[in-house]
Amino acid sequence: MTETRTGSWWRPYRTLGETTVFHVDLRPHAGHEAASLAWLDAAEQHRLQRFRIQGPGRRFSLCRAALRAVLASRLACRNERITFEVHDDRGKPFAMVDGAPAPISFNVSHSSDHGLIAVAPRGRLGVDVEQRQPRRHMDLLIDTVFTEPERAVLTTAEGRDRTDLFLDFWTMKEALIKALGTGLSMDPATFEIPPVLQRGTKRGTFRFPDLPAVTWDLDNIGNETYAAAVAREMIPEPAPIREL
Ligand SMILES: CC(C)(COP(=O)(O)OP(=O)(O)OC[C@H]1O[C@@H](n2cnc3c(N)ncnc32)[C@H](O)[C@@H]1OP(=O)(O)O)[C@@H](O)C(=O)NCCC(=O)NCCS
């Protein structure tokens, strides 16, 4: 199997510093779906068989195959040498090559027809994508996951604008949670999206209240079709060695 950076159903979408974000086309496509199966290992084939409905299985297969192709290219190794492990019971996957942790960072998200894969040589990463469509129980979710200042901004918008703003805020929070890797154990109402990003600026920096030593770059990378965000851990440059 050839190792490519740009395949027929995934392609580079954004470059942010050392991070590349790939878009993955998750629409039904018999050829892509069949090709994706060839990239999956036995554990992934087994997981695929356990999906009871088509959509989630197709999204997993197309996204995981694209992820494997991107990692194989970046790591200059054959797909067969790559396996995935999870950090703990919270489930954030990381890559191994020949059984040893690979020197690469990534995160994946999928929503309806769209997948995003963020990949970088170092630092924790989180990515989230949500197709722009009306959400059920949006007001309840607004009351549950957002802080009072965030709710105040959301209530200034109406109709379609409100849904769009809700999804922008949601993906930014989710990208931060996914970068940290805590999953549902973190209460999203305990931290706030940087005010500049709430006001529409596309990039800002962020610190979790309980983790002030780590700074994250947060980018709103959505478009008209989907809301999307990427959180990247800022790795301080090593101090220069001073000659005595
Ligand atoms: C996995 C989780 C982090 C996100 O799930 P999700 O939004 O349904 O799904 P996404 O498509 O964005 O992401 C799924 C991918 O994230 C990755 N992932 C799994 N667990 C993860 C974790 N703990 N941290 C980061 N990434 C994780 C996996 O690669 C997974 O894809 P795969 O199974 O095909 O490999 C899940 O724990 C969750 O639902 N968190 C919700 C937290 C919350 O309350 N959010 C409110 C938003 S404000």
Structure description:
This protein is α+β, with helices and mostly antiparallel strands. The chain has two domains: 10-122, Ribosomal Protein L22, Chain A, CATH 3.90.470.20; 132-233, 4'-phosphopantetheinyl transferase domain (Ribosomal Protein L22, Chain A). The chain is built from seven helices and eleven strands. It has helices spanning 30-37, 42-49, 54-75, 138-145, 148-154, 159-180, 195-198; strands at residues 10-16, 19-25, 82-86, 93-97, 100-101, 105-111, 114-120, 125-131, 203-208, 211-220, 226-233. A four-stranded antiparallel β-sheet has the order 1-2-7-6, with helices on one face. A four-stranded antiparallel β-sheet has the order 8-11-10-9. Strands 3-4-5 form a three-stranded antiparallel β-sheet, covered by helices on one side. Strand 6 and strand 7 form a beta hairpin. The longest helix is centred in the N-terminal third of the chain and has 22 residues, at 54-75. The model has no long low-confidence stretch (mean pLDDT 93). Coenzyme A is lined by residues 60, 63-64, 90-93, 107-110, 128, 145, 170, 173-174, 177-178, 181, 183-184, 188.
